[in-house]
Amino acid sequence: MTPDHVSRIIEQWAVERPDLDTAPMAVIGRLHRLGDLLRERLVEVYAEFGLSEGEFDLLAVLRRSGAPHELSPTDLAASTMVTTGAITKRVDRLAARGWVERRADKSDGRARTIALTPAGRELIDRAVEAHYANEKVLISGLPDIDRTRLARILQAWGELLELD
Fold it and tell me: Of 50, 80, 47, 48, which Cα lies nearest the Cα of 63?
C-alpha cells in the first residue's frame, strides 16, 4: 500500500514527538477521514432527490416503521438521534413539499403524529434504492470476507464504546 495522509501525519509525529504512541491514529484518523468521504458520497445521492441527509433519514425512519408509516415526533427524535426541535424543522420542510403530513394521534387527539404521504413514500422508495446501490458501489472494492470482518469489528467496537 502507498502511504496515505494519515501515514504522513504519523511519520511527522514520529520525528517531532517520538515519545507519542500514534498507533491509534492509524485507525481513528483513517475512520475519521473515511467517514467524511463516505458522507460526501452519500449526500450526493440524497441531493439527487432534493433531500438533505436529515430529511432522507426522517423519511427512511417513517418508511421502515411499517404501515401506517407514521410516528410521533418523540419516536422520530429517538430513531434519528436528534432533538424534537430538529424534527420539527425537518417536518416543516418535508410537509411544505407534500412528502409528510401531521395527523391527530388516534389515541390522543391533542397529540400529533408525522406520516408519509403517498408522494413521500414513492420518493423515499426511489431514494432508498439509489442509496443502497450507492453503498454497494462504495464497498465494492473490498473482498466479501473483508466486508464481513469489518462489519463485525465495527459492531463490536461500537458496543464497547456504548458501554461507557
Answer: 80
What are the residue ranges spanned by the domains of the chain?
A: 1-48, 49-138
pTM: 0.87
Q: What is the DSSP string of 77-114?
A: HHHHTS-HHHHHHHHHHHHHTTSEEEEE-SS-TTSEEE
CATH architecture under which domain 49-138 falls:
Orthogonal Bundle (1.10)
pLDDT in tens, the chain (164 residues): 788 999 999 999 999 999 999 999 999 999 999 999 999 999 999 999 999 999 999 999 999 999 999 999 889 988 887 888 889 999 999 999 999 999 887 776 667 899 999 999 999 999 999 999 999 999 999 999 999 999 999 999 999 998 75
**Alpha carbon distance 12, 27 (integer Å):** 17
